[in-house]
Amino acid sequence: MMSRTAIVLFLVSLYLPIQYAAAEKLKVRAGSWMSDGNFFSEINSKLFTHLLYAEAYVNTSPFEVEIFPSDEPEFVTFSKKVKEKNPSVKTLLSIWGEAEYALMMRNPSSISSFIRSAQNISRRHGFDGVDLYWDYPKTKADKEHMESLFQEWRKYIHANDSELILTATVPYSPDWPHHDKHVSFYPIRSMARYLDWVHLVPFHYLFDQRINVSAAHSAFYDPTSYCSTAYGISNWIRGGLMPSKIVMGLPFSGYAWNLPDPKNNNLGVQTGKVQIYRALGMMTYKEIRGIIPLCGGKTRYSDTHKIYHFSCGSTWIGFDDVKTIKIKVSYAKEHKLLGYVAWRVSYDDNGLLSRAGRFS
Ligand SMILES: *[C@@H]1O[C@H](CO)[C@@H](O)[C@H](O)[C@H]1NC(C)=O
Ligand SMILES: *[C@@H]1O[C@H](CO)[C@@H](O)[C@H](O)[C@H]1NC(C)=O
Ligand SMILES: *[C@@H]1O[C@H](CO)[C@@H](O)[C@H](O)[C@H]1NC(C)=O
């Protein structure tokens, strides 16, 4: 029989790893929210430390941050409502732009107007930070512009609102979409210097190839290509972004393709055009979970890529599930990343994936 001391030691030994794991929790457990016809009253904000509202845009005359009029009613109550459920959750306003940013940067006096309006609109509506989503710098000039925008922005925050969080949302790898040529126009060292952190978007890996191949669009590893989360993260780190500035995206969605031959339904087979559910065949985790039982209930797991897939007649679908989300979160911990961002909160099915992230 075990002595009392042995029993106590045994119980302590059980308890210690739990304590250790709890202390290891990732600092940022964020979710990106986009309405897409969903109501944010459904968000369980207790599952997150940060919530991004996606998205505001850049008006070019004058250069100011604006919200689409149809989003306005929800936008103005977003921060207040999510903080009622979890007073410690922080909210960030994500500001999307493409040509608008390039245009703004050619007109230096517009930069301070933009920065002021970003601070004003976010603070006025209870946000704790701003997130820049510039899709994506395409030239050397864009790179310099982005660099000076972040520098100005940090100066402004330092002088006028030192608590405001400043982040950016970027593709999974700095050389996207030119990974074949390894060309990148991100000012990575300046991003590390001026931003609180950076969110990596967790899919679109096979931008060209995925058109005709049943692809691991959110592969965690891929020994045969540069298209994976692990590759993207190491590439950002090699470029000078510290792990402590990286918030890794978790895909709460999958992709669907048409199979020319329903029996030839593995990962990586030639397919017809991408199936149109939404833009480019994207499907939410919730939609996928709804379809699985109608398609025989079986899914297959790729241990190499860390994704799930299944087919249903002539449709092939690849996606992430609880297990792959947990694998990705463990990787983030092992590599001392700052955290993760659920992409997107509204695609989840009753919080299944959000909980998998939160509690692993
Ligand atoms: C935003 O701007 C308005 C008018 O331009 C000003 O009255 C208000 O105080 C500003 N709010 C913040 C939070 O900066
Ligand atoms: C602080 O805000 C004021 C008022 O908007 C502005 O004039 C000033 O340039 C800002 N400071 C910095 C360093 O950007
Ligand atoms: C994809 O397939 C279509 C026909 O189904 C073909 O016209 C197109 O060239 C293919 N695209 C690629 C990138 O292979």
Automatic annotation (TrEMBL):
UniProt xrefs under PROSITE patterns: GH18_2
Keywords of the record: Signal
Organism: Acacia crassicarpa (northern wattle)
Chain ranges of the GH18 domain: 27-360
Lineage, uppermost ranks: Eukaryota, Viridiplantae, Streptophyta, Embryophyta, Tracheophyta
GO cellular component: extracellular region
GO terms under biological process: carbohydrate metabolic process; chitin catabolic process
Signal peptide: 1-23
Molecular function terms, GO-annotated: chitin binding; chitinase activity
Official protein name in the record: GH18 domain-containing protein
Domain of life: Eukaryota
